[in-house]
Amino acid sequence: MAKIKITQIKSVIDRSERQKRTVEALGLKKINHSVEVEATAAIVGMVKKVNHLVAVENI
């Protein structure tokens, strides 16, 4: 599987509870925090739901 690097670029303040939980489930804790994860269908789906809050790079 391919790996992707996800970086939180915007705050989750004033976002819906669902978006906050999705960002947390991706392993992100604060702005400019990055995680490297496998690009599974579940992860890609979560990234699409919060694409306005994160930046994604292929590794």
UniProtKB/TrEMBL annotation:
SUPFAM superfamilies: Ribosomal protein L30p/L7e. Gene3D superfamilies: Ribosomal protein L30, ferredoxin-like fold domain. GO terms for cellular component: cytosolic large ribosomal subunit. CDD domains: Ribosomal_L30. One of its GO terms (biological process) is translation. The keyword Cytoplasm does not apply. It holds the Pfam family Ribosomal_L30. Keywords: Ribonucleoprotein, Ribosomal protein. InterPro entries: Ribo_uL30_ferredoxin-like_sf, Ribosomal_uL30_bac-type, Ribosomal_uL30_CS, Ribosomal_uL30_ferredoxin-like. Residues 4-54 form the Large ribosomal subunit protein uL30-like ferredoxin-like fold domain. GO terms for molecular function: structural constituent of ribosome. Part of the 50S ribosomal subunit. PANTHER family: LARGE RIBOSOMAL SUBUNIT PROTEIN UL30M, MITOCHONDRIAL RIBOSOMAL PROTEIN L30. Belongs to the universal ribosomal protein uL30 family. This is Large ribosomal subunit protein uL30. The gene is rpmD.
